[in-house]
Amino acid sequence: MAEATTKTIRLQVNGVVRTVQVEPRALLSDVLRDAVGAHGIHVGCEHGVCGACTVLLDGEPVRSCLMFAVQAEGRAITTVDALGTADRLDPIQEAFWDEHGFQCGFCTPGMLLTAKALLDHVPDPDEETIRDALSGNLCRCTGYQDIVESVQRAARLRAGER
Question: Where are the alpha helices (DSSP H) in the chain?
Fold first, then answer.
């Protein structure tokens, strides 16, 4: 069997440029978790259906389990690890906390980043727009109502309402 060839790529992850050696077939989700240490990315179905592995690529939500890391070279990647800290939550995280928009938390990173992308484009979305934006993120624990209310609260928090 031939030895696997690797490629050196540069990824901008959460504002930091990282140079990593990858196999051309390495998935972005695996490289972000294993080589970069972005452990907030959850890998669920590995088929792009559940949305748990969602990251923002140049501000747009993508399934990192469906993308090769080499395809992200030179692009800006945002993971859930960049949203906030335990001491200072992002308004979206705060809203999910306040409105009980998560239960087990497995889908939460993808939900948070999808909500961020939505609110970056549509600062005050209606319920239908929120549900449509989140339709690619599956949660097996909730009925989605608390998640929708979390995104609505996040929009209010971002607008300065407390």
Answer: 28-31, 91-98, 108-121, 127-133, 145-158
Q: Does domain 7-82 have CATH number 2.40.10.220?
A: no
Sign of CA dihedral 81, 86, 89, 94: positive
Indicate the CATH number for domain 91-158.
Answer: 1.10.150.120
Q: Give the model confidence (pLDDT) of 73-82 as tens digits.
A: 999 999 999 9
**pTM, full prediction:** 0.92
- Position 2 confidence tier, pLDDT thresholds 50, 70, 90: low
User: 22-61: string of b/e by CB count within 10 Å (b at 16+)?
Assistant: beeebbbbbbbbebbebebbbebeeebebbbbbbbbeeeb
> Residues 122, 123, 127, 129: what is their CA dihedral angle, to the nearest 10 degrees?
10
Structure tokens at 1: 């069997």
